[in-house]
Amino acid sequence: METIKVGIVGLGRLGKVHAHNLKGKVANATLYAACSPVSEELEYAKNNLGVQVTYTDYEEMVKDEQLDAIFIVSPSGLHCSQIQLGLKYGKHVFSEKPIGLNIEEINETIQVINQYPNQKFMLGFMRRFDTDYMYAKELVDNDELGDVTLIRCYGIDPSEGLESFVKFAGASNSGGLFADMSIHDIDLVRWFTGQEVSKVWAIGKNTTYKELDEVGELETGAAMLQLADNTMGILVAGRNCHHGYHVETELIGTKGMLRIAQVPEKNLVTIMNEHGVVRPTSQNFPERFSQAFINEANEFIECILTDRQPSINAIDGLESTKVALACKESYEKNQLVTI
Ligand code: NAI
User: Can you quote a single GO CC term (predicted)?
Assistant: First the structure.
């Protein structure tokens, strides 16, 4: 079978994960090029990833005729312009979430995506490729829970990353806690219910680092969502989880309820020692979703090879960002926001 030559932009926390997957764990793909403004990252690409060509300028990379597809893992504010440029130069494009941070720019990007129907576009909501979430979705679709009435979602990053987040929070725009963290949960709410969110009310609190107030970022936030058919959503998001990486989802239905990772267990080991009975917890997103990242990349490559569009598209990106930005607005204005 044909091998898809991929170029990656961004080799930070997640870029390295995707790059290593593309190097050896994704079928029928090869990591051919990498782009970053940071020379150490390009050295890393050559030495540790076996990348043949490196670029400091993204447009130069997408012009490379050897390349079939681009993986965008750069800061969120760059996604829209990089998606557009990749498509214009004839590449298939995978972009990390969120699709963008500005609704006008996202709509413009959707128009460009629609101009290239033969090229594939996919957005990185990898939880839809996690086997536990897939199992839960099958149960919901098979009516095991009856009608879903409420979904409660936790997405809290480990405390160990908080200090460095605070250091760079002013310099790089994450889009705020809801666009950065809750966007996965918002996507899950839409995916499980097939409904759009109509109203949101969000609150938040900065305690450890009060300076986050000044840059419009949050250490912990929460939001209530009302969906078009009155289904309810509760989001809890944060950046200060002391036991590791806490991603948990609960669905309550008329016939039953289910929880995915109600304790975010790392594995099946239980330790009994002076602390009592200890269950290790998952520590970060590369660990918790390692297989999901591989599965989603496999799906993207397979879509290219079998000429079908991925199931996660730009509309999923637009709708989830609308909700995340409404949560931000609700928090900032202290009022209920109708979408
Ligand atoms: P990071 O800050 O660790 O890495 C960003 C990378 O982009 C660095 O390699 C940097 O050199 C590069 N970069 C910066 N400016 C650039 C430019 N002008 N042109 C090209 N490259 C540039 O960020 P991280 O955490 O890896 O996040 C990257 C993206 O992935 C974000 O959009 C984030 O929302 C998303 N993400 C998704 C996750 C998921 O669960 N699916 C988890 C973590 C991040």
Answer: cytoplasm
Task: Check the CA dihedral 40-36-101-99 and report its sign.
Answer: negative
Using the atom order of ligand 1, give the atom closest to the CA of residue 38: 11
Contacts of 330 (CB under 8 A, 6+ apart): 200, 201, 202, 223, 336, 337
Task: Calculate the CA dihedral of residues 128, 131, 134, 135 and round it to 10 degrees.
Answer: -160
Nearest-CA residue for atom 38 of ligand 1: 14
Which residue type occupies 296?
A: E
Ligand 1 contact, 297 CB (< 6 A) = no
The b/e string for 157-192 (b: 16+ C-beta within 10 A; e otherwise) is: bbbeebeebbeebeeebbbbbbbbbbbbbbbbbbbb
Under the banding of pLDDT at 50, 70 and 90, the label for residue 169 is confident
Q: Which amino acid, one-letter code, is at 87? A: L
ipTM of the complex: 0.99
Query: If you measure from the C-alpha of residue 100 to the centroid of ligand 1, how many angstroms do you get, rounded to a whole number?
Result: 13
Cα(142) to centroid(ligand 1), Å: 37
pLDDT in tens, 174-228: 889 999 999 999 999 999 999 999 999 999 999 999 999 998 899 999 999 999 9
- Tell me how long the chain is: 339
What domains can be seen in the chain, in order of their start residue?
A: 4-119 (3.40.50.720), 128-291+320-338 (3.30.360.10)
Biggest CA–CA distance in the chain, Å, is 63
Buried/exposed 62-79: b ≥16 CB within 10 Å, e otherwise? bebeebbbbbbbbebbbb
Q: Which residue has the tokens 């995506």?
A: 113
SS3 272: strand
Task: Report whether residue 259 contacts ligand 1, using a CB cutoff of 6 Å.
Answer: no
Q: Are strands 197-205 and 148-158 parallel, antiparallel or unpaired?
A: unpaired
Q: How far apart are CA 92 and CA 84, in angstroms?
A: 11
> Strand, coil or helix: what is 214?
helix
